[in-house]
Amino acid sequence: YAPLDFGAARFCELRVWAMFNHVSSNMQQYFDYAAGDISKERMPLFIKPDRKLSVRDLMAFKRDHLEGTDLDMSRDIGAGPFGLPYRWRPLTWEYEGKSYFNERVTATQQTGFSFISQMRSWMPDHIGGIFWFGADDAASTVYMPFYCGITKVPHVVAQGNGDILTYSETAAFWVFNRVAHFAYLFYNRVMPDLTKVQHELEEHFMVQIAEMDDKAGKLYQTDPAAARELLTRFDAEIANNTIDRWRQLGEFLLVKYLDGNVKREQDGEFLRNPWGYPQPPQFPGYNDEWKKEVIQQTGDKFQVK
To answer: Residue 1: its pLDDT value, please?
Structure first.
């Protein structure tokens, strides 16, 4: 059905290897195989991780772009001047009669949604199951926790609120896509700001979940229906607040990085001079590697004489 060939290893097994590599110290021996050399020792179907995994670990796995490996997509010329670890489709392409490919890493721009299913058997079913859901690219989404006992899907993630051809400013899919699409323009500048908010939200969810587990668990003992309604309201608030915060982040990023400049800010507040005018923006320009590529292709065309 699916005979092993270069593509099966490089486009599929490499994703598995990347995840295993985060939690096992023995994966380097399978790197050549995962990179497409199917004559090498095959990677095992499953492994025992070196440590117990958490929900945060699973989130990190889904956000991998082969960082820290020889195949790091942010380090070759295809990444452009801002270290973009994405390559637009098609996956394979040709040049002068030879076939080439783009890496197929775990985090991709065309992801519609991804999720992590957390099952805690020691709790009542309606409380013990949590569906961590993120819309769009896993690297730039926020995983929101939805208890499996909720009785209504929040509007921002509900079917019918926009679709792939219908933009909706209240749909999580479109809000996350809009911010990610901007981040792709100036990736290594924008992502530190994005991941800061991403991690703040997800870490806060962990605290909120612990509190809600206790509150809903006590209520469930006497009134399961009321506990489920409590969870439903809780998740609706989380979803709405997340989308509102992400929309605010998008507005902040647009102002800060407008036209390739960088507005000066501190703790999210843009700086002004004593007269109320904006502080002069920064002009980061391009790194030396990119300058070298430009000069190699254009010679002295842009040299000041």
So the answer is: 64
Q: Is 61 left (phi over 0), alpha (psi -120 to 50) or beta?
A: alpha
> How crowded is residue 4: how many other Cβ atoms within 10 Å of its Cβ?
12
CB distance 100 to 76 below 8 Å: no
Number of domains the chain is built from: 3
pLDDT in tens, 41-100: 999 999 999 999 999 999 999 999 999 999 999 999 999 999 999 999 999 999 999 999
| Helix (H) or strand (E) segment spanning residue 253 | helix 224-256
Q: Is the overall model pTM greater than 0.90, yes or no?
A: yes
Q: What is the DSSP letter of 71?
A: T
Whether the Cβ atoms of residue 110 and residue 97 lie closer than 8 Å to each other:
no
Give the integer Cα–Cα distance in Å for 174 and 240.
Answer: 14
115 alpha-carbon distance from chain centroid:
12
Could you tell me the residue range of the domain that residue 87 belongs to? 6-101
Tokens of 191: 């992502």
Which two three-digit tokens encode residue 123? 């709790």
Q: Residue 106 contacts by C-beta under 8 Å, 6 or more apart in sequence?
A: 15, 18, 19, 61, 62, 63, 64, 65, 138
From residue 289, give the alpha-carbon distance in Å to each of 27, 55, 56, 86, 138: 31, 37, 34, 18, 28
Which of 39, 66, 101 represents a domain boundary (last residue)? 101
Answer yes or no: is 107 within a domain.
no
Sheet holding 113-119, edge to edge: 113-119, 129-135, 144-147
User: How many angstroms separate the first and last alpha carbons of the chain?
Assistant: 63
For residue 179, pLDDT beyond 70: yes
Q: Rg (Cα) of the chain, in Å, rounded?
A: 23
CA distances from 32 to 223, 237, 253, 256 (A): 56, 47, 39, 42
Residues 41 and 20 in one domain: yes
